[in-house]
């Protein structure tokens, strides 16, 4: 029985469990420490505790994926909300072999960026409202509102959804405040504060289209939904299909949604949302796509008969729409009308309340989705949705369905907590809904019409729109205010509600203070306005500050940052350049794409305040000797979005690049963030190790409880890591270097686990730094993977190495492949250059060899074929005839694990007489070393293509094929290929020793030997092996690239069984 983990809670978890059980899944629920007895936990076959409390527990991707893995689940359904649209969750599932029920991470990233989805819509010919592009600040927002000729605009969060982080702005003077509120709300709701500005459509209907796609065949729509009835941008009531919508507009919306799904090759369920001009319904605009299940999916299921959760599960499992029996024809037209009402908790002054009675309606044509029950503790920690009540009727009009829903709501009994049931009934009874005369502001406009009149003046009370806590009071009694000026701000349910003056006037009394808890409808202030022209018309709007003029606090921060830059430290930088070296910041500038570096911890100074003045530390220990941050690498050369890269550069101009108390904290923080973000890591490791001179933390005795090395170790197998050594790299700096996947070193580098002082202190002698671990020696012994001339070359190699794990390149070229036909000499005893063969076979300038000077009989390199990254292992016949020795076996095994860890397919080019044998070889522990290949090869989870270019004899030949000729996804040979259980000469002498020894005549014995040898060689020719299907084919060398591409495109990864790959440092 396959296992499905539901990474959610409440009614949506129950909904998914219901369908999953019907489909034969073993269901696993998750819960925080407060919900061990929740309904969704009881309903599942199994439950796992997530450490933590509240929403944070359900947002912890690492814990969720671990729960899925340890419970044996093969699939994970995210539901909606929480991490359902987080690409990091999809990536984490992919890395651990768990099927994510939803689109891939690239699609989630696209739809999570509203600026990117707007650009997609424009490319697809789908209309959008004018808007700013990307994250928007006040200057851009002011320019945009000016370009709209005074038309109102809407400030919106760039990510997230659910109506949070949205404000309508009608005048420029209110923009700054709206931007601030939206950023604050978005940061709390989604962890991302960026906003943009869009033209506001004041009279709009909110219509959305449900789409299913399998990523291959034509996507289908499941009709549309009316989501116009909202309160403060939060949906209250949904109707399917949308009523009173002209046929031409409906058709245009459906086709636009399909065009967007088609443009992204969408796989899964997606909702595309649009605004339709209520006054000109032929005008519509795309606003966003939600690549997940929607709260309101039930009304679509009712009018189509399609179980959307079942469709999601099947699509995730690779079942096409056709195989599910789903097509546009099978969907047909809408079957009746379905209307949903969302019953939600209303904000209250207390954080936790108990439901003392909970009764919901039931009956034919009524569908209820809820997790509520009598005795349940209702908290403010989660979304306030308590229940969804859906009424579905056929062969009746909308008014009858609305009447039926209102009647069902009258039977709802929820006591102990406030709900919106009364509001829902009031809205349903309004004639405007039945006439189809609703817009997105319909509810707000009808509920806020409260303004008692008096003679000569208009006296108005300003009410709290919701229960909540006062977080700001912006005006005082007696103050004159303009229309739109803020009076107070309330916070409730993670939303901020701004109470503004509805018109110009003078405040009578302000009845609240910061920190007060107020009930919904409570009076916050009174306002007296005058008839006719008032003094308000003579007051100019507040003057906006000059954006080019920095305040004193901003100027001080800029000065502090600049003090740590290279131009502010001319003496130290000159000494560095005189030594022939680049600075840490110069190396980072070369590594990262232009203008993409974001530094972390630039204001740190050494923890030596007890010894040195603050001015001295700021001037001479900037960033505490470690410049670190995130930036883009190779972004322009790749077709897909790639994660940022984390880089840490120890600054030798600051205390010799040593590791101090503060830079240890910074390094640990960077490693933890890199793990969280899936960012590759580059470490410029030059430095002298630990720094004993930091004195500020007297609570530490030894400092051996620091987490730097652990944090880097936990990145192993999680993200690619690169260490670069130039100059002196000793002790703790060398430990970080050696923990990286790949080590790059300049020829003048010295690398050692102890520097001169430590060696001398241990009584081991006195040595100059240059005598300790010179880089050429470390390359020969396998410590250094790539030995280069200088730091510029090291950075170039690092960028190239990272690129292999960032996806395929869009442009590539290669040599004339016909040259491969002569790459291997016809005479079997003549050596050839395997590296020249590899460079001809791979894309131009795409080969990077690792550990070239170590295990020289084995070649390991990364390369590309038709832009796709792969690993290549090959035997070099110029070294011991290509025999595999201990060093070569270690080298190959480690390289195979490197490729397997990061998902690179592997090409093996075999030309070996077998394993190295003899007394001298056995002294190197051959038995253990070469056997690593028989453990590593069979357990690869990536595709393997093996090609015998010349010799493949004995166990060594099998090892080059992953342990057996049946392991590779393609087992091929070139015409020069020859195979055998042993080398020909040895096999004949061993197998026919008695016959040969019986011949006395040496000449006759030699003739017989040659005859037997020829027979053996003929039997081992590649064509003969292919004729008995020991190999898959003998190919024209010029066709090799086509075979590689075809094999890797079609081969599926063998299951990693949910276990993260671990990469040994050796």
Automatic annotation (TrEMBL):
Residues 118-317 form the ATP-grasp domain. It holds the Pfam family Biotin_carb_C. It comes from the Bacteria. GO terms for molecular function: ATP binding; biotin carboxylase activity; metal ion binding. Residues 452-528 form the Lipoyl-binding domain. Its cofactor is biotin. It catalyses: N(6)-biotinyl-L-lysyl-[protein] + hydrogencarbonate + ATP = N(6)-carboxybiotinyl-L-lysyl-[protein] + ADP + phosphate + H(+). SMART domains: Biotin_carb_C (SM00878). Keywords: ATP-binding, Biotin, Ligase, Nucleotide-binding. Residues 1-448 form the Biotin carboxylation domain. This is Carbamoyl-phosphate synthase large subunit. InterPro entries: AcCoA_carboxyl_beta, ATP-grasp, BC-like_N, Biotin_BS, Biotin_carboxylase_complex, Biotin_carboxylation_dom, Biotin_COase_C, Biotin_lipoyl. It comes from Rhodococcus opacus (Nocardia opaca). Residues 819-1066 form the CoA carboxyltransferase C-terminal domain.
């Amino acid at each position: 029985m396959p296992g499905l983990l539901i990474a959610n809670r409440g009614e949506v978890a129950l909904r998914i469990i219901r369908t999953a059980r019907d489909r034969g899944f073993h269901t696993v629920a998750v819960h925080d420490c407060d919900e061990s007895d929740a309904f969704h936990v009881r309903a599942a076959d199994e439950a796992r505790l997530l450490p933590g409390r509240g929403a944070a527990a359900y947002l912890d991707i690492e814990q969720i994926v671990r729960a899925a893995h340890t419970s044996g689940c093969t699939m994970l359904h995210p539901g909606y909300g929480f991490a359902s649209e987080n690409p990091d969750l999809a990536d984490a599932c992919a890395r651990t072999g768990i099927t994510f029920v939803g689109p891939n991470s690239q699609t989630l990233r696209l739809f999570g960026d509203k600026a990117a989805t707007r650009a997609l819509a424009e490319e697809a010919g789908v209309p959008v409202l004018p808007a700013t592009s990307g994250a928007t600040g006040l200057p851009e927002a002011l320019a945009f509102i000016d370009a709209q000729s005074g038309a109102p605009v809407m400030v919106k969060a760039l990510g997230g959804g659910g109506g949070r982080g949205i404000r309508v702005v009608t005048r420029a003077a209110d923009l700054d405040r709206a931007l601030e509120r939206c950023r604050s709300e978005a940061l709390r709701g989604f962890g991302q504060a960026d906003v943009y500005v869009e033209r506001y459509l004041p009279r709009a209907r909110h219509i959305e289209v449900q789409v299913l796609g399998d990523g291959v065949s034509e996507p289908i729509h499941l009709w549309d939904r009316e989501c116009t009835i909202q309160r403060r941008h939060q949906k209250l009531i949904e109707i399917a299909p949308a009523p009173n919508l002209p046929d031409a507009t409906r058709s245009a919306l459906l086709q636009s949604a399909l065009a967007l799904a088609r443009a992204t090759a969408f796989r899964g369920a997606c909702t595309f949302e649009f605004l339709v001009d209520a006054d000109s319904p032929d005008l519509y605009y795309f606003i966003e796509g939600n690549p997940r299940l929607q709260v309101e999916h039930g009304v679509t299921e009712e009018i189509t008969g399609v179980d959307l959760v079942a469709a999601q599960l099947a699509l995730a499992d690779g079942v096409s729409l056709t195989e599910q029996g789903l097509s546009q024809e099978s969907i047909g037209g809408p079957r009746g009308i379905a209307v949903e009402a969302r019953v939600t908790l209303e904000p209250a002054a207390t954080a936790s309340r108990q439901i003392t009675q909970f009764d919901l309606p039931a009956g034919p044509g009524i569908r209820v989705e809820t997790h509520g029950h009598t005795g349940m503790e209702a908290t403010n920690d989660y979304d306030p949705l308590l229940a969804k009540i859906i009424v579905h009727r056929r062969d009746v009009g909308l008014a009858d369905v609305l009447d039926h829903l209102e009647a069902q709501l009258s039977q709802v009994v929820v006591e102990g907590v406030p709900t919106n049931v009364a509001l829902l009934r009031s809205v349903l009874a309004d004639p405007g809904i039945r006439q189809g005369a609703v817009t997105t502001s319909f509810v707000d406009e009808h509920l806020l019409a409260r303004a008692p009149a008096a003679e000569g003046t208009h006296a108005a009370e300003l009410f709290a729109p919701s229960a909540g806590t006062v977080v700001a009071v912006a005006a005082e009694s007696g103050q004159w205010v303009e229309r739109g000026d803020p009076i107070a701000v309330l916070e409730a349910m993670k939303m901020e509600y701004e109470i503004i003056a509805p018109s110009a006037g003078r405040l009578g009394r302000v009845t609240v203070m910061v920190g007060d808890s107020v009930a919904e409808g409570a009076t916050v202030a009174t306002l007296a306005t005058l008839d006719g022209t008032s003094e308000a018309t003579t007051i100019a709007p507040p003057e906006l500050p000059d954006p080019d003029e920095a305040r004193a606090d901003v100027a001080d921060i800029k000065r502090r940052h600049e003090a740590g830059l290279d131009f502010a430290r001319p003496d130290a930088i000159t000494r560095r350049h005189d030594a022939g070296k680049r600075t840490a910041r110069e190396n980072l500038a070369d590594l990262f794409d232009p203008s993409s570096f974001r530094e972390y911890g630039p204001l740190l100074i050494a923890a030596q305040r007890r010894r040195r003045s603050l001015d001295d530390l700021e001037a001479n220990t900037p960033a505490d000797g470690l410049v670190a941050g995130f930036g883009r690498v190779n972004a322009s050369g790749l077709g897909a979005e790639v994660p940022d890269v984390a880089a840490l550069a120890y600054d030798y101009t600051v205390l010799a690049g040593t590791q101090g108390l503060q830079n240890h904290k910074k390094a640990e923080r960077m490693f933890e963030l890199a793990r969280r973000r899936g960012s590759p890591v580059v470490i410029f490791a030059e430095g002298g190790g630990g720094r004993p001179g930091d004195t500020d933390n007297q609570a530490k005795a030894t400092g051996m409880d620091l987490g730097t090395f652990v944090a880097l170790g936990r990145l192993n197998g999680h993200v690619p890591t690169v260490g670069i050594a130039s100059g002196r790299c000793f002790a703790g700096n060398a430990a970080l270097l050696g923990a990286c996947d790949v080590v790059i070193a300049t020829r003048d580098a010295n690398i050692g686990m102890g520097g001169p002082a430590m060696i001398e202190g241990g009584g081991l002698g006195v040595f100059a730094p240059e005598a300790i671990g010179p880089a050429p020696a470390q390359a020969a012994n396998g410590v250094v993977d790539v030995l280069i001339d200088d730091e510029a070359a090291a950075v170039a190699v690092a960028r190239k190495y990272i690129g292999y794990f960032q996806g395929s390149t869009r442009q590539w070229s290669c040599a004339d492949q016909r040259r491969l036909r002569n790459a291997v000499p016809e005479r079997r005893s003549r050596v050839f250059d395997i590296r020249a063969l590899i460079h001809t076979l791979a894309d131009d300038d795409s080969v990077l060899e690792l550990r070239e000077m170590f295990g020289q009989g084995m070649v390991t390199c990364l390369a590309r074929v038709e832009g796709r990254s792969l690993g290549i292992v090959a035997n070099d016949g110029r070294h011991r005839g290509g025999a595999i020795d201990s060093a070569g076996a270690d080298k190959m095994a480690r390289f195979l694990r490197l490729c397997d860890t990061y998902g690179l397919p592997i090409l093996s080019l075999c030309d070996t007489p077998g394993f190295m044998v003899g007394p001298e070889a056995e002294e190197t522990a051959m038995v253990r070393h070469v056997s690593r290949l028989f453990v590593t090869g069979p357990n690869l989870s990536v595709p393997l293509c093996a090609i015998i270019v010349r010799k493949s004899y004995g166990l060594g030949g099998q090892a080059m094929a992953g342990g057996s000729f049946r392991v590779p996804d393609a087992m091929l040979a070139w015409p020069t290929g020859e195979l055998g259980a042993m080398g020909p000469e040895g096999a004949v002498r061993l197998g026919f020793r008695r016959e040969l020894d019986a011949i006395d005549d040496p000449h006759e014995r030699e003739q017989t030997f040659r005859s037997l040898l020829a027979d053996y060689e003929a039997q081992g020719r590649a064509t003969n092996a292919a004729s008995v299907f020991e190999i898959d084919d003998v190919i024209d060398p010029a066709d090799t690239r086509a075979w590689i591409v075809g094999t890797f495109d079609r081969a599926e990864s063998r299951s990693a069984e949910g276990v993260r790959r671990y990469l040994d440092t050796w």
